[in-house]
Amino acid sequence: MEYQSNNNRNSSNNGTSRSENATQRLIRENVNFLIQQLEAGKSDALTAYLTAMSHFHNYSFGNILQIARQKPTATHVAGIYAWNQLGRRVKKGEKGIQILAPMIGVRRRKNADADEETANPNTPVLVGFRAVYVFDVSQTDGTELPSVLGVQGEVGEFRDRLVDFVNVQGIALEFNERIAPAMGVSYGGKIILLPGQTKAEEFSTLVHELAHEMLHKADRRTVTTQTVRETEAEAIAFVVAKAVGLEVGTASADYIQLYHGNASLLAESLEVIQRTSAVILAALEPKTEQDAQQEAAETTAA
Q1: Helix 263-284 vs helix 158-168: crossing angle, to nearest 10
Q2: Which DSSP letter does residue 94 get?
Q3: Which of 17, 32, 222, 270 is least enclosed, having the fewest CB within 10 Å?
Q4: pLDDT reported for residue 201
Q5: Is residue 150 part of a domain?
Q6: Looking at 142, 166, 188, which one is the last position of a domain?
Q7: Is pLDDT at 24 greater than 60 in this prediction?
């Protein structure tokens, strides 16, 4: 499900407005719930949300909130049909996790040019969203699933992929012991890391500084505090490190308390964390054979 916030803000009184408003309402309710949990002293609620982001970075912001709220321990969700295709069955009596799925319709051309209508008679459009139910792998039995990332406390090839992504972004990466005691610093298209860190520490630090470079340009620095910027970067480092299988502690347990109950500001920041984490995690995924062939073709052509 694609990120929908721009559509939600710009929706007009068309067929999608009611569904998009429902999506926004769902986000607001979950954000308010999270604030209430933290005000009640349950700071582990934040960790559940950030962990959900690490597992479900391909899901929309609203659906991540839904999954984390309904089943904080979820790690891999799918519908009944998808589980059946993977050789697994949902256990009897298990309660589904409700999320929103897009409904795609067809916009038929009216009074269009005959040639254009023949070439592309109908256009698929998003007409709204519907409630569907998914189940976590813990709610199923059957064939063992292959490990998606296959990392247990080791960075493996993810470190090299992360460095490649940093280079593609045009960000210079250096190592310099003079920045001690800081683990890393970043400014104006350059990241400097403290040498001598473990691979896991170096990976997490690099993600943290990369998040600053991606998020905290001059335009956003004017509307956020240094504390917010640091906790956003730390939260992204938590999400990405968790996703690649590193053992990490709780990330900024007091993070949401920084917002003093401001739900709209909190929602905006969490969306930024989710969106940025998803971009980085996508860059860390192994290249498919098709990607490799395309990259080789582009290199040859150059």
Answers
A1: 110
A2: P
A3: 222
A4: 87
A5: no
A6: 142
A7: yes
